[in-house]
Amino acid sequence: MPTAAVIIIGNEILSGKFTEENAAWLIGRLRELGADLGRIAVIADDVDAIASEVRRCSEQFDWVVTSGGVGPTHDDITLESVAAGFGVGMTREPALVALLEKYGLELNDATLRMATVPDGCELVEGDGRSFPVLKVRNVFVLPGVPKLFKAKFEVIAPLFAGVAVQTARVRTKARETDIAAHLSAVQDAHPEVEIGSYPRFGEGDDHVIITLESRDAAALESARMAVQAGVSRLDSQ
Amino acid sequence: MPTAAVIIIGNEILSGKFTEENAAWLIGRLRELGADLGRIAVIADDVDAIASEVRRCSEQFDWVVTSGGVGPTHDDITLESVAAGFGVGMTREPALVALLEKYGLELNDATLRMATVPDGCELVEGDGRSFPVLKVRNVFVLPGVPKLFKAKFEVIAPLFAGVAVQTARVRTKARETDIAAHLSAVQDAHPEVEIGSYPRFGEGDDHVIITLESRDAAALESARMAVQAGVSRLDSQ
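Above: the input entities. Below: the C-alpha cells describing the complete assembly.
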C-alpha cells in the first residue's frame, strides 16, 4: 500500500490563528483511497524546520504532501526550504512565468517567487488551465488555502490508491486492565489485524472501545469474534 | 518565552478512527498561557518513530508533551519508546505500584506496565490522589484520553506561562501579489512583529487576511497602521 506523510507549514496553525483543515481532510481522503498515512507534522515557517522535516519524510514514506507557504509573500518559504532539504538549487521555470503572465500578474520579485522552483521540480498538470502541482522527487508541494489544497490533491489522488482498510469495533464495560492480556493474545494470533484499545470516560456506560482494522476481511472477522468472546465473558461476570 | 512541542502518539488519529482533540485544545491553552508552540507531530504507535521524535523535540524545545500510549494494553508503548529515545533503561516504580494497589487493580503484566517507567523519571504530583504526571527530562508523558490529558496538563501548566501574544488583523480586497512588496517592507521595519498573509477565497469579498502578532503592543500597533495604510491605498485605487 502507498505510505504517506503530510507536512503542514503553518505558524498560523501553531499559534491558533486558524484551525487546521487540510490534514484533517486528508486523513479521511487517504483512508478512502486505501493509503497508509504514517505521519502528520505541523511545523513553523522556518527554512531549517521545513527542510529537515521534508528530507526525513521523503526518506521514510512513498509520498509526502506539504501544505502552505507557496504564495508570493515574504512568509512563503516552502519551495526554497524543499530545495534546501534536498541540497539542490532553485530555477526560474519558464512555463510558470508564462502562466503568471496569462493570469495578468505583473512580473515582479513577489510574483516570480511563485515561478522559482527547486531544481528537478516536475509540473504535474491537472486540467491544463490552472497552476500545476509542483512535485520535487516524491514530495508534492500544495497550497495551504483549503479549497486549493483539496482541488490540487485530487490531481494526484490516483497515486495514493490502495486497498481500503476494513474496520470493526467492540465495546466493553470491563476495565482496560482486565482485558489487556486477552487483547494481547488475540493480537498475537492475528498479526494482519491491528487492534487498538481506547478507554472512554463520560460517554455512556462503555469503559473501553476496542478497534480492529485490517485489509483482510476474514482475519478481521476472526479477530473480532475472538475479542468479542473474551469481553463477553468479562462483561457477564 | 517557554517553547513547546506536542507529540500525539496515535494510529487512531492517522487512520481516522478518532478525531484529534488534544493538540487542538493545547494550541489554545498554550496561547492563553503565553508559551510558543513550535511543533505538533502526529505519529504512529511505533517505538522507533516515537523515540526519534521525542529525542529531537527534547533537544529543540524547552518542554515536550506527549499524548497517548500509556495504558496497560499491548499498544501502549510510549514509556518504553521514551526510554529508547534517551537511551536509558526502565525501572518499576514502587510509588506507582502502590497507587495501582490502592485503586484495587490486580498486579499483573498488564497493570505493571503502567508502573514501569524510564530511568530518571520524576513523578509530578497534582492533587495527591490521582496518578502523577510522568516527567522524563523535559518530556511530560500524558494519557491520550482527552479528559485526562486536559486534567494532567493543568498540573504542569504553570511551567508554560509566558507573556501572551497580542494580535491584529487587516483585511484587504487587493490581490496577494499586489501587497507582497508592501508587507515585506513593513515586516523588515518591524522585526518584533510576525506578519502573515493568508488568501481566502469564497469567504465574502475579502481576498487576503493579513495577521500581525507580537508581545510588544506598541510595535504591533505601529505595524498594523503601516500595513493598513498600504492596503487602503490599494483598495481605493
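Note for the figure: Residues 217-235 of chain B form the longest helix (19 residues).
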